[in-house]
Amino acid sequence: xxxxxxxxxxxxxxxxxxxxxxxxxxxxxxxxxxxxxxxxxxxxxxxxxxxxxxxxxxxxxxxxxxxxxxxxxxxxxxxxxxxxxxxxxxxxxxxxxxxxxxxxxxxxxxxxxxxxxxxxxxxxxxxxxxxxxxxxxxxxxxxxxxxxxxxxxxxxxxxxxxxxxxxxxxxxxxxxxxxxxxxxxxxxxxxxxxxxxxxxxxxxxxxxxxxxxxxxxxxxxxxxxxxxxxxxxxxxxxxxxxxxxxxxxxxxxxxxxxxxxxxxxxxxxxxxxxxxxxxxxxxxxxxxxxxxxxxxxxxxxxxxxxxxxxxxxxxxxxxxxxxxxxxxxxxxxxxxxxxxxxxxxxxxxxxxxxxxxxxxxxxxxxxxxxxxxxxxxxxx
Length: 380
Fold this sequence. Notes:
The chain contains twelve helices and eleven strands. It has helices spanning 2-6, 23-38, 63-69, 73-84, 121-125, 175-189, 202-232, 236-241, 244-258, 265-294, 299-329, 340-369; strands at 14-19, 43-47, 54-61, 93-97, 102-106, 128-129, 138-139, 144-151, 156-158, 161-170, 196-201.
């Protein structure tokens, strides 16, 4: 039950659905894929809910003889359902008790025990059928031939098509790596063109989340760039300021593998928060360097002074954020595991951003503006 709740009602987070026109072929392909997937690293349990060995009886109706008696296939099936279950599903009737106001089902069914009950195939063949063209009832075996066979325990459908599900449970939390390995396994199986295999379950939601995040990240990046252009009235300064963003990505790519943390939605949210913090540090250096140049300092003196003066506020804000995120990154408290990837991404990215920004951004500033002459703003 816990797994079903965590996996949005499904037995496992990864559902490999196999679909062909023939159910037996579908089941055989699913068994082969399950055997291949079971050999992959990181696979915990594999479960196929459908089996093909369920004992069943097929009713082959003699349509010509049944038509001569005035019976249709529906009439015969309705009689069989009534005998084995009741007529509730065929012709539901209700009786209302006006004294109490309660509604009651009125159904007809065979006896469950005793001589009148159906115990074996012989009793099933003797089910009476009342035909319109006969004065006396006939029996089921007069118009139906019973055939023993094996059928699926359940038949599942996805968008009307019959499918066989392979539920895969990973050992850890990394769904992306296991999903890639399963896709590679399916590609290496070289299935026929009429066999369709799709990955569903939580991996669908994961892919949709990553796609929407990539779109949101791109939009936020463009908006940030436009705002910086409007604030600094330059196309060069926004590029210098946003150099801090790749510096933060370096720390994220280092700390996530070191802490065995997966790249998920929460860690990506940490990356999004990191962009704003890293850019604010670059803004302090670039903006102050421009003001020092307006006061008459050379480009190199202005950028060196800006780094030395702004280093203290940059370290104070960054250390405050890192220290505040540390308990969350250590999974302290109940439910802390949910926000741990975000905290670790912010800590790693912010650390690398601070260490590299104070060198990369001033160097780029000096490289771009090294030939610019200093202009002193008039004193009022």
